[in-house]
Write a structure and sequence with these properties.
The protein is mainly alpha-helical. Helix content is 55%, strand content 0%. It is globular, with a radius of gyration of 15 Å.
Length: 84
């Protein structure tokens, strides 16, 4: 399927059971969306910085700082102009 979900995420959704694989790089401690960032994106699409912060357990301000840093790195590597 081309829904962007991994087999693991699809399995969690089918069984309606939160993922317990805390070592997974996609794990977020947000049981409403089965602890999976892929499922979170699949269910919600684009999210506000507040929504991202809620899922990660950090403040809106911290999410904004992380976003600013990522955009700065992308600009330096000239990736940003390719994306926009």
């Amino acid at each position: 399927m081309k829904d962007g979900l991994s087999a693991c995420a699809r399995n969690c959704m089918t069984k309606q059971t939160p993922c317990n694989e805390k070592e997974c790089r996609l794990f977020i401690d947000f049981k409403k969306e089965y602890n999976c960032s892929l499922i979170s994106i699949h269910e919600n699409g684009s999210m506000t910085l507040r929504e991202v912060g809620e899922r990660l357990g950090i403040s809106f301000a911290r999410v904004k700082q992380i976003e600013a840093g990522a955009l700065q790195k992308m600009k330096k590597k000239k990736i940003l102009s390719e994306v926009l």
